[in-house]
């Protein structure tokens, strides 16, 4: 790494661009191998009804168990999977595996729904909607019980091809969600035009919900806006009893976060579903 420059000192630049290129190549190579060696796993985090504590659904979150790198989190490999195009294959695996898994859990809770994160690159793939249909059909998961999470920038920016994908998904009954809401730049005017069913308030806002009156008002505005537009509103990243209480008071209908339940391995889910409703310490 380049040394911090002090006055009159020689600045030493390491060839970090070269190093980054090598990292990229090595990660890309390992990722390709990972798909074929079955090194991806899913964890699931409940989406909880804030009024009753009941588990309404689960969000699938991908992890990479690399034999050489250890546990790799999605923020560290999804961007590379996107750049290299491998996201199409990984995303299809996530969809197929999670749909199969949740279809089985619906024997415990017949109304259980599934949320899956989808990147813009997947959406631009011409066969995306068809691939989703096929994966859900094979898994025996009704389309109406599946919500695809997209970020604001993907929803606002994307090509006609991507928008066509979204339209066919909507036609087959798949639901759509805006993930990390508030971190992008959607205008309020545009929000009502988006073909979404759900809005997930980014955890940066949830984090600040009780710091100042302004922050509280901001979250209240997002919750009210979502409800006015007829959307399910989900608060992400609820970490404390105080945040939970604040969101309940604001009438936010759903929440996710460590205070309610961390992402868990699939083996733990039947027990959690059987014990639902979740009753976190107040
Ligand atoms: P996201 O979709 O916004 O998912 C929420 C992230 O917040 C998850 O991180 C989750 O573990 C974490 N989280 C949940 N509750 C709390 C909390 O109370 N506090 C804090 N600090 N964090 C909490 P994770 O699993 O590391 O995933 C990060 C991001 O990677 C996801 O953000 C999503 O954008 C992406 N991602 C995950 N799985 C997939 C996937 O299968 N496909 C694609 N395309 N992206 C994925
Ligand atoms: Mg998400
Ligand atoms: Mg996200
Ligand atoms: Mg999010």
UniProtKB/TrEMBL annotation:
Signal sequence, renumbered to the chain: none
Boundaries of every EAL domain copy: 24-277
Domain of life: Bacteria
The name this protein goes by in its record: Diguanylate cyclase (GGDEF)-like protein
Part of the intact protein present: 463 to 744 of 744
